[in-house]
Amino acid sequence: MAAILYDDRSADAYRLARDIPPGRLIAWREAIGAEAALEPGMTVLDVGAGTGAFASALHQWFGVRVLAVEPARAMRDLIPGAEGIEALDGTAEALPVPDGCADAAWLGSVVHHVSDLAAAARELRRALRPGAPVLIRNSFPGRCSRDLRVRFFPETARVVAGYPSVEQVCAAFAPAGFRRIALHSLPQQSAADLADFAGRVHRDADAKLRGLTDEEFDRGMERLRAAVADEPAQSATSWMDLLVLV
Ligand SMILES: C[S@@+](CC[C@H](N)C(=O)[O-])C[C@H]1O[C@@H](n2cnc3c(N)ncnc32)[C@H](O)[C@@H]1O
Question: What is the pLDDT of residue 47?
Fold first, then answer.
């Protein structure tokens, strides 16, 4: 699938609509800690770092240094310039980092943007220390029914059906010596509540929503508004997968 081109407007929309504060990602913090055993001073490669929400969370949670690789300038410019986070221009297929520099790699909502997953796997093998895990957070075909966007915009499942499956990602990474060691479905609080979630939906900021027709999007917004009217404070819990390869 072709990458969305993020310009200044859509990068800003992405940050407002999609960035989740670390406090709403408790299950993710626990799962990453359990799978990657990260310690202060280690280095994490955040590939396709976007506006840096996870780069910040990883740095804040584990005290790690984050090399945040992001090809879109507009997104990269929004990565917080904190000490311990370094924003770099590059792609998964051509990582701008030295051999064996990282203790883990994080790919958040990015595998469906990468045109050559096998090349990305070879680059990750080069950039990671032996035994370092690749942590992939993504929607996968056939596994996305608990995603809030799919609940209200069911046709987004059609878009996700075009993403690489768990099996396809594993097959693309296998020649570089990676094998699957875990697959978790994990919750997050996508917004303070459903009313907050509805107010933050932004079509330009989301490949799934951009894949809908106008009618499908409008019907989804109607469903969402009706659910908010019914119970505005209901939780905005959404689920995504964490695939771990070593
Ligand atoms: C949906 S955003 C996810 C951003 C961030 N990881 C997050 O979870 O919020 C996907 C990002 O991948 C970037 N991207 C697109 N093609 C890429 C590639 N080949 N290698 C690395 N990143 C890529 C896009 O520019 C965009 O910032």
Answer: 98
